[in-house]
Amino acid sequence: MPERSLRGIPAPVLLVLYLAVALAPLGIAYVRGGPSRPFLDDFSSALALVAFAMMLMEFVASGRVKTVSGRIGIDLTMRYHQLLARALLAFALIHPFLYTTPMGYPLPWDETGQLRLGLDGASIATGVLAWILLAVLVVMAIWRRRLPFRYESWRGSHALLSVVVSGLVAHHALAAGRYSQDPVMVGFWIVLLAVAVLSLGYVYTLRPVLQARDAYEVTAVEPVAERTWEVRLRALSGEGLAFMPGQFAWLKLGRHPYRITEHPFSIASAPQESPDIRFLIKEAGDFTGRIGETETGARAYLDAPHGNFTYMGREAEGLVFIAGGVGIAPILSMLRALRAAADPRPMTLVYGNRHAGQIVARDELAAIRQEMKLDLRHVLGEPPEGWRGERGQLDQRTLAHCLPPRPGEGWLYFVCGPGPMIDAVEDHLAALDIPASSIISEKFDYD
Ligand SMILES: Cc1cc2nc3c(=O)[nH]c(=O)nc-3n(C[C@H](O)[C@H](O)[C@H](O)COP(=O)(O)OP(=O)(O)OC[C@H]3O[C@@H](n4cnc5c(N)ncnc54)[C@H](O)[C@@H]3O)c2cc1C
């Protein structure tokens, strides 16, 4: 298999691009703005201009545009999406309270907005509504788990509300904004609005059309551990998916791809198994809870590959894998690919479960240990009598015991599982002096 590498814009370039777009309206306003106003007024306008640019960039930074998330990974992309949403909300909330120029209808002889803020009934209405709905949008995302909605309902409302708020802000800015009425600024907003709408349109309209041409068939659904299923798909085209071991896919099941219900799952098979593709799915809620009822022959659609959780394209003298529960899925994909490629590097797998019935692919892992330089460590929280493996949690004590004593500088650490487990393992690894740059994590939830 040819060596592949992660696609997407590198982090430093992303940062520069982000700052350039977020600050561009300030540059345009500075060059083309009218006579200066009191500092607080211009500061308030600056907050609003930057907040609007940030808001439109949130559409592109929603985790679905591979050019953005391809290198930095979905986890970091979502962390920034959430962080930047909070920051832009703060800018937007403060902005109306800083003006010192009186509010009021635009005066025909005040073309540069020196004497009045130039708000009419419609622009006040859209401004106030956008201000309230933006707060609702962000607060609903922060408190998503506490709300009595299904994940899918929340996600649909999040997308819809984002479009509505952007439309309201666009009207408010173009109708009342002192700087946004300048033709160059209008052009800038039109381009940014088009990028935002196109990125959303791609996810919800164009991508399903492409998926319809690239359908998969479910060829097997089998229980492989307690409440955990292996789902096997085959590409109907006969052409397999080009992915790197460890990456994940958005999966839709059903007769057609024009539905918004889709779920992210790591690919558990190796690329060498193409055109077959396997997932390990643990029952967690309404979709996964019924995965065992999926019939063979059912249609499936994938948006893939996503994510940067892979050893490919990275230099490493040795590899450490740390999996919690079903977090073994992308790690199995990597181990299966490394085995198929007869990779000679030393590796360690620390695989934590609560009890032995939850261990997936136990025999296969034992076989990989026989064939490769793999140090395999099972850790059980509730071990059965006579258990000879590790006992307890994936904590600092267990990790210190299981990890290679003095791994060279060039080792990479892959950690996968539920969010709280990842946070804890990352802290333990830091306490063991493993540099953060050597740790690559994949969280199975975004919160
Ligand atoms: C990158 C990534 C890879 C994953 N890989 C695997 C895997 O290999 N095997 C596995 O069993 N699980 C995996 N998960 C977790 C899996 O996506 C969720 O368990 C599943 O979506 C839950 O759906 P549900 O309707 O059954 O449960 P629910 O009760 O509806 O959801 C439980 C939680 O799962 C998350 N979730 C639910 N639906 C979605 C969705 N459509 N998109 C994003 N998050 C959602 C939300 O945080 C939600 O609160 C992965 C998650 C991520 C982010």
Model description:
The protein is α/β, with parallel strands linked by helices and 447 residues long. It has three domains: 11-206; 213-306, Elongation Factor Tu (Ef-tu), domain 3 (Beta Barrel), CATH 2.40.30; 318-443, Rossmann fold (3-Layer(aba) Sandwich). It is built from twelve helices and twelve strands. It has helices at 11-32, 39-60, 66-72, 74-94, 121-142, 151-176, 183-213, 286-289, 328-340, 362-371, 396-402, 419-431; strands spanning 216-225, 228-235, 248-253, 263-266, 276-282, 299-306, 318-324, 347-353, 374-380, 390-391, 411-417, 439-443. β1 and β2 form a beta hairpin. α2 (39-60) packs antiparallel against α6, α4 (74-94) packs antiparallel against α5 and α6 (151-176) runs antiparallel to α7. The radius of gyration is 26 Å and the shape is elongated. The protein binds flavin-adenine dinucleotide.
